[in-house]
Amino acid sequence: QVQLVESGGGLVQAGGSLRLSCAASGSIFGILVMGWYRQAPGKQRELVASITTGDSTNYADSVKGRFTISRDNAKNTVYLQMNSLKPEDTAVYYCNVASIMSNSWGQGTQVTVSS
Q1: Which positions ≥6 away from 68 have C-beta within 8 Å?
Q2: Element spanning 61, H or E
Q3: DSSP calls for 76-107
Q4: What is the rounded CA–CA span in Å between residue 53 and residue 70?
Q5: pLDDT tens track, the chain, 115 positions
Q6: 87 forms bridges with which residues in the sheet?
């Protein structure tokens, strides 16, 4: 069982920045991909960004050039630096960790961007 603890969400004005963190603990053997998803009210959950063990990254087109995903393997932590935030980035952001043993989700952290 993998436990994920997210932090860093909040309220910010358009154009501002936030940094999300997600720390993994427990049975974290064999992590393959760490990522961030988001779900806005009335919409499906969507991939925001992901990063592999080899630091290969993938971003949603809507966040390319504004968001940066990174990871600290020693701390089993993944980060999402979000710059130039827009009101349409408002959503609950979820951390996801996929390993050879499991696929785990965090509890979610609210990000609200005011115009």
Answers
A1: 49, 80, 81, 83
A2: none
A3: TEEEEEE-S--GGG-EEEEEEEEESS-EEE--
A4: 11
A5: 789 999 999 999 999 999 999 999 987 788 889 999 999 999 999 999 999 988 999 999 999 999 999 999 889 899 999 999 999 999 999 999 998 888 999 999 999 999 9
A6: none
